[in-house]
Design goal:
heterodimer, A: alpha/beta, seven-stranded mixed beta barrel, 8 strands, 22% helix, B: five-stranded mixed beta sheet, 2 helices
Amino acid sequence: MALRIPRYLLDQIRAHGEETYPCECCGVLVGEFDDAGGKTAEAVVKCGNTRTDSPANRYQISPAELVRIQRQAQLAGHDIVGFYHSHPDHPARWSATDLAEAHWTGCSYVITSVEHGHAVLTHAFLLQGQEEVKHFEDEAIEVTT
Amino acid sequence: MPTKVLIPTPLRSYAGKQAVVEVSAPTVGDALSHLVAEFPDLRKHLFSEDGKLRSFVNVYLNDEDIRYLSKDATPVKETDTISIVPSVAGGR
């Protein structure tokens, strides 16, 4: 299983992290799941970080924005397949907060480390299990052209 | 014409793998009751043991959060769309 994503979309995600530095960026991956459990991102939607109280180390996407994105994806025959955010001056690994606040099992959570304003590493994690016994697994990113 | 309920990707496996479920109900609360009656496995993913929506589950009628409307008693028209969206948040 892997997250397939075109290079230009991955570049958009990383650029978003640089734009919002030293605050965390966030957004949604829209695309398709395949029968093998993998997924393909066909668009990314940049979202605002509503955690204005602590944007340097927290993010939240407005539910109203998620509703609009989910509705538009459904009309286009696509799905929400994942989300992304940045970790300013922090590793591209999921945190305890990331896991506690993650509820979209089967979806990808993509994290980009941004050091001194420059995007460094981008990793993907697959949320598995159910709410009471959920966990992240490393997920390969397959970059397409 | 029944009301559409949009099912988020993590809950589809509990809703017959459907992205959209149609229900006929006068209120949002009734619509959700019909939904979990048809798909019992959905119940624990939407509601806590006391029957309230789980804290991270958002329910919208069109573009409005039902918490700022009339909650479960919010009336539903046939042209409305009910969206279920778990929250998305985190941080380092």
